[in-house]
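Problem 3 from the worked examples.
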Amino acid sequence: MAKITLLFLTVVLIYFILTLLSTESAPEDALVSQIPGFTDNFPSKHFSGYVTIDENHGKKLYYYFVLSEGNPTKDPVVLWLNGGPGCSSFDGFVYEHGPFNFEMGETKGSLPKLHLNPYSWSKVSNIIYLDSPAGVGFSYSGNKSDYITGDLKTASDSHTFLLKWFELYPEFLSNPFFICGESYAGVYVPTLAYEVMKGINAGEKPVLNFKGYIVGNGVTDEEFDGNALVPFAYGMGLISQDLFEEVTSECQGNYYNPATDNCENKLAKVDKTIESLNIYNILEPCYHGTEILEMTTGNTKLPLSFRKLGETERPLPVRKRMFGRAWPLRAPVRDGIVPTWPQLLQSNNVPCTDDEVATSWLNNEAVRKAIHAEQGSVAGSWELCTGRILFRHDAGSMIKYHKNLTSKGYRALIFSGDHDMCVPYTGSEAWTRSVGYKIVDEWRPWTSNGQVAGFLQEYENNLTFLTIKGSGHTVPEYKPREALDFYSRWLMGKTI
C-alpha cells in the first residue's frame, strides 16, 4: 500500500513539474522586464525577439508578445499585422490597441511617457505584434534580395515564423489561435490564414489551433475596392447629387477603370472636390504643415467643436497619431508592384500624419535594447512605413480566399470604420454581400457603453460584416472602447 501511495505521489509530482514547465517554457532571454518611459509594473508578462526563418540568408522576423491580462493559459493567441505593404506592426502597438498609451515627451527629443491603456486588446487575449515581411520595422535579412517580395512569399514566410514561434512557446499551442490585421493586411491575413489551413491539413508540426481571422478596413478586391469611393463620397455628402448622377451616367458603375474620356473627366472632378480631405477619416483635419498644426492646436478662438476634433479617450489626439497606408484616390491594389508611401512620394512623409512619438521611442538605443531589437547598425533605422522593400501584389482577389476559409469552418469578422476614405466601408459591405451566403442576422445596430456603436450583418458560415460609427481607417485608434468591445465579444463567440 505504501509503495502504491509513493508511486501515486511520484506521478502527481512529475505531472505538476511538467505542467509548471509547460506554462513557463517561454525563452528566458525574450522576457521584457522594463521599458524606458514606463515606471509601473506590467499587468502581464511581455516577451520579444527574433525568429530566424532562413538560416542561410540570416532572415529574421521581429515580434513583440504581450500575454493576456486575463487568463493567458486559456485566452486566445492573436497575431496582429499592420498593412502597407511596408508598415510595422508597432503601429498597432503604439497607436491602437497595445498595452500602453503614449504621451509626448516634455521637451524636444525626450522620450515619450507611457501609461497603461485601459482598452488594450491584451485585456482579453495574448497578442503577437509581428513586423513582416523582412525589411519592415525591426525585421531584416542579411541578404538584401529578400527585400524583393510579395503577397505569396510574405504569407509563406509568416507561416514559417508561426511554426517556429509556437516551437518556442509550446504552452500556447492549445489556445485558440486567430490572425488579425488592417489595411493592406486585408491581403496579409487571408493569404496567411490559407497557408495555416494548408499546413494543418498536411499535418505539419506543430499543429496550430487555428479558429479564424479578423480584417479591419482591409483591401480585398480590385473591382469592389475601386468602385467603393464614388458611392461613399455621395453618401457622405462630399459630392453633389448632380456630380454623382453625371459620373454614374458616364461611367456606368465602373469607377476604377474608366472606359471613356468623359468618364475619366468626371472622376477627375470627383477627385478634385475631395482632395483636401483627410483620406483616413473625413471628419478629421488634414495637416499639411507645422503652421496649420500650430494654428489649430494653439488657437483658443477656434470653435470648441473644431479644437476637440481628433480627441478620444487616449492622451494623444488622433491627429497627432494618425498613420496608415492609402493609395491615391480610386487606385485600388492591382496585380504587380505596389509602391510604399516613401516610394510614392519620394519622401518619408505621409499626408495628414505625424508618427513622431513612435519614431523617437523606437529609435532610442535604450528602448531597442530593452525590447531585444537589434541596433540601427544591424536592423536599420525604425520607420513606421519603410521604403526599403519592393513589394508585388501577386495573390489576386481575396474573395476566393475568404470563400475557401469560411466554407471550411473558419470564422471571419470583417470590420470597417465608416468614415475611412482610404478603404471605404462601401467596398467591404459590397464584397461580403457578393459572396452569396445566406443572411442569418439582418442588418442591425450594435451597442457599446449603452450607445449605438455601428451596424452589422451576419452571414452563414460565420462571416460577419461590421461597421464602427464615426471611426476612420485605424478603428482601435479612433474608437478604443468600442473596438475592445466587439473584439472581445467576437473572440469569445458572443453576440456582438
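Problem 4, a separate protein:
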Amino acid sequence: MKQKSERRQSSGSTLIKHVLLGLIVFLALFCLYYGSVVAPYSPKLHDEDSTLDPFLGGFVDDSGYEFQPQNVDSLVPKSIPVCDMAYSELIPCLDRNLLYQLRLRPNLTLMEHYERHCPPQERRYNCLIPPPIGYKIPIRWPASRDEVWKANIPHTHLAQEKSDQHWMVVNGDKINFPGGGTHFHDGADKYIISIARMLKFPGEKLSNGGNVRTVLDVGCGVASFGAYLLSHDIIAMSLAPNDVHENQIQFALERGIPSALGVLGTKRLPYPSRSFELAHCSRCRINWLQRDGILLLELDRLLRPGGYFVYSSPEAYAQDPENRRVWNSMYGLLRRMCWRVVSKKDQTVIWAKPLSNSCYLKREPGTQPPLCSSDDSLDKAWNVSMRACITPYSPKMHKGKGSGLLPWPQRLNAPPPRLEEIGITAEEFQSDTSTWHFRVGEYWSLMKSVLQRNTLRNIMDMNSDTGGFAAALNDKDVWVMNVATVNNDSKMKIIYDRGLIGTVHDW
C-alpha cells in the first residue's frame, strides 16, 4: 500500500511539472507572436542602409534618423571612451588650441580670443574628461573656502606670481587661500568693510539692510572677494577669462564659490539688464576707455538704478602722467553717462549710476555716448554684440526712481515688478514657488539618509524657469547656478530680481 501511494504521488508531481512546462512554452510563444505583430519596425544588422551607433547602441540610416532598440537599456550609452589625460582640463568652447587649428583670426586687442568659439560638429569630443592624476574627494564647505587639495587643481604658478599679495599658498598636499588680493593684501574681509565705510552704510555692512544682494566681480582672480561676501548675505558672480591664468575659476569652484568663465570682449555678458546692485574691479587690467567706453556701457546695462561701481586701480590714485590721463578721460566719460563719484579714498573710487532718466534728458544734444534706441532689446545677452550706448530706464522705473525690489531676503519669494514683462501673474509665480518648496522638501527627506553633512555645495539647475528650485534651497548651505536656455532667456531677469544668480546658455 505504501509503495502504491508513493507511485501515485510521483505520478501526480510529474503531471504538474508537464502542465507547468507546457504553460510556460505557451506563454513564451504567445509573447513572441504578439511582439512580432505590434512591435514597430527596427532594422536588422544586415540592413544595407543602417549602421550601429557606438555610443547610443541604436541604428542610424543615411538620413540621420536613429532607430532605438525596444528596451530601456538602449538609452544608456554602451561605450564611451575616456579622453586622453592631455584633455583633463578641456573647456571645449574656450579651447585656445582650437583657434589656431581652425586658423581663426580673433582680434587680440578686443579680447575676442577669450570669448566662446565652439568646435564644429566633426571636431567635438565624444569622450569622458578624466580627473587629474591623484584626484581626491573635494574638501567640504565651509572648510573649502580656505583650502583645497593640490592634486585636484595641480597648478601652483599663481602662488609664486602672487606670493606678495596673499592670493594662495602651497602648503604640502593642500593649497591655502589667506583671502588676499592685488588691492587688498590684508584680506577681503577687511576690504569689504572698508567699502561699506566709504558708502556710509549702517553698521559697516555692505549689504545695506539687504539692498545690496547681487554683485558682479570682474577679473575676480581666485574669487576671494566673492568668498567673503557670502557671510554678508551677498552673492557674487565672480568672473574671469580662460587666459594665461586659466585655473583661477577652477580654484573658485573647487573652493565652493559661485563663479563663471567670461570676459568683457565684444559680446554682452550672458546676464539680463539691471541684474546687479554692485560691480567690482580690483586691478582687473581692463581698458575701460576702448571703443568709446563700450565696456563701461556694458556695466551700465547690467547695473540696477543707483547701482555702484567699486574701482580699485592705479588710475584712481597714482599721480604719474599716464595714470592721470586715464583717470581724467574715465572721469569725463562717466560724467557724460550721468554716473557720480560717491566716495574716493586711498586706492579705491566708487561711482553710482543714476536712479532715473532725469540726468540723461538734461544732456546737451549730440552728447556722447548716446542713449540706446527703444527697439534695442536690453535683456538679450546670448551671442549679442555690445553696443556703445547708455541703457535708459522704462517710464515706470524712471517714475519710481529705482528697481522697486524689496530688500533681501524678502525679495526671494515676493513677486518682482518685472514679472509682467514676461506675462506671468503674481499668483502663478507664488504657486510655482510653493510647488518647488514642496518638491525640494521631498527630495531632501529622501536624500538625507545617504548624504553626509555638507556633501552638496555647487548645484546647477539646467532649466531654471523663474528660479523656484534655487529659492527652495535657500535655507541649505548650497548655491545654485540657474541656467536659462536661449529660447527661454527672458526669465533670467526674474532669477536676479529674486536675489539669485544664473546665466543664459545654449546647450
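Solution to problem 4. Residues 1-10, 25-70 have pLDDT under 50 and may be disordered. The longest helix spans residues 2-38.
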